[in-house]
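Model it.
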Amino acid sequence: MSTFDLDSPFLPLPCGIVIASVQPTPTSLVVQIACRLPCAACPLCQQPSERVHGNYQRTVADLPCAGRNVILALTVRKFVCGTPTCPRKIFTERLPDLVQSYARITNRLRDALVALGLAASAEVSERLAPLLGMLVSAPTLLRRLRAVACPPPKSVRILGVDDWAWKKGQTYGTLLVDLELRKPIELLPDRKEETLTAWLLNHPEIDVISRDRGGEYAAAARKGAPQAQQIADKFHLLKNLRDDIRDLMARKQKVLPEVEEISSDGIPLQARGKRQERAEPEVPKPDEPEKHWRSMSKEPRQASAGQTSQMSAQSGSQVSRANRSARYEAVRALHQQAISQREIARRLNMSRQTVQKFLVSESFPERSKSPYRGSILDPYKPYVLQRWKAGCWNGSQLYAEVKELGYTGSAALFRLFISSVRKHHQAAGTSTVLTLDADGAKVSGPADPPPKPLLTPRLSPTRARLSLRESSCQTGREATLAGGTNPCGSR
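Modeled.
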């Protein structure tokens, strides 16, 4: 038997709910309905009760009728629970076939909105719903779509496994895709081997697993689906090919041509055709664990001529001073034209205090530098500079050493000082001439640094790989013109 009363063809309602009145308007229909069942069950103890405590009015939106909004004015009764041990003394009758508790729309209107959201996007549905007699916002529709439980697939034959970021750089999950249907089927909370293995054990019908180069995914596929064949996806297949070509070019770098260009800071010594010399490791103390520090090059990185000339031509402070000087001259010129200070500030978009300061000063007022107040790193700067001159250029190792000496400051402050030391070292070309200022705040080098040698680097493996790709594409285009196929995919 149907749960809806078909005696009212205008508005099907569940059994026991009757229509009291209908109030039509040009844009809506207000339908007064009420439940006429003699009793209601308590939601906690499930015991029926016939003792009515009171009633209240509840407004619920329903499916539209002939383009007009349908509003159900539902009279809901309150009952007294007769069970002595039940903690709820008064309860409201439930109508789950029509509307859920605390809901503002009926079940059928909710299902219609979900179907509309699944067929189109949330923004499109928000614009289309008013034309169909329904009102919904895009955020509300997205919230309802997230609550829809998608049925799990019955069988998956070709599975795609890849990771995705819940929060980029911190938390990652696993995305499972049915590659035959081209639809995502599952989101795992992490990318651990145990999680994927447990999921694969419940799907023994998988024949092929397409994954990336992650070792945990490979181990999970071997344990959870040993019958499946593991393959690489298109992206990692091409990435493997590019990496192999780059490794080949790195092994044959001695035969690569030299490039007549100025090397930049980003090109390592290996890309310049020079072998990187390793620093002799320090012998650890017997009672301390051995630490492995990355060896640094003994030759400082060379900055390009364009960067050096640009940095030496004009710094940020010089630009700021030039702008302030121009405004000072403009204020003096407008004042000579008998223009008030208020009007000068309005024209130049300045404060009147600044305008008055410029007019009182006989010459351009220079900005005074605040005195150096000292730093928590000052007691350790001579030691760091001494170790730097001794050939220890690894910032992580120096930071660990000063921490053992008692440094309690932040790592960012230490990195800032090391970057200034490295910059002066690169400018001077040697570390033996670096000294500290009188107050110990900054590092200074020689007034006239020695000229930097002009490097002639070899073609890097990455650029050689790109050149090889361009030449193969050019060959493919020529083959296409001759009637062949292009390996790069162009037509």
